[in-house]
Design brief:
Number of helices: 6
Number of domains: 1
Strand order of the largest sheet: 2-1-3-4
Number of strands: 4
Strand content: 5-15%
Helix content: 40-55%
Shape: globular
Order of helices and strands: HEHEEEHHHH
Structural class: alpha+beta
Largest sheet: 4 strands, mixed
Length: about 140
């Protein structure tokens, strides 16, 4: 799937690009899947064929060490992506997003990057990307 096609999908669905070999990232995807009652999110591992076509977000010079949320031609990175995901999940997660958003962006992103930088050491990694269960396969872009 081309970058243009991914952007077309993102007009209707938020697309979350994640590190498929990272245990923390995979846990986060599972967390979202279980709470996404409207099934709005789409997921794409950065190691997949489609994930490799993702263009660098405009505000960065290289691919960030972050989850990337693409929705309606807007890229959300680092803590902004987390906040946007929590808001889209709704329920009390919206309040959690507002609480996180109280902190300055530089402060939030410092802690995000600290965890991202050490995610393999802290949480481990997979040798291969996990295959989604049949229940959620239509939410994954391969």
């Amino acid at each position: 799937m081309s970058n243009t096609e991914l952007k077309e999908i993102s007009q209707q669905y938020p697309v979350l690009f994640y590190d498929g070999s990272c245990r923390l990232c995979n846990w986060s995807v599972q967390f979202i899947l279980k709470r996404d009652s409207k099934r709005i999110f789409r997921f794409c591992s950065l190691q997949s064929e489609s994930g490799k076509t993702v263009s660098v977000p405009p505000e960065t010079s290289q691919m960030p060490d972050s989850i990337i949320l693409l929705y309606k031609n807007n890229y959300y990175l680092y803590s902004d992506a987390v906040i946007r995901i929590l808001i889209m999940l709704g329920s009390w997660y919206t309040w959690l997003a507002y609480i996180i958003n109280i902190f300055p962006k530089t402060f939030r992103n410092y802690f995000y990057r600290l965890i991202a930088k050490n995610r393999y050491r802290l949480f481990g990694r997979y040798n291969t990307c996990l295959i989604p269960s049949s229940q959620f396969q239509n939410q994954f872009i391969l």
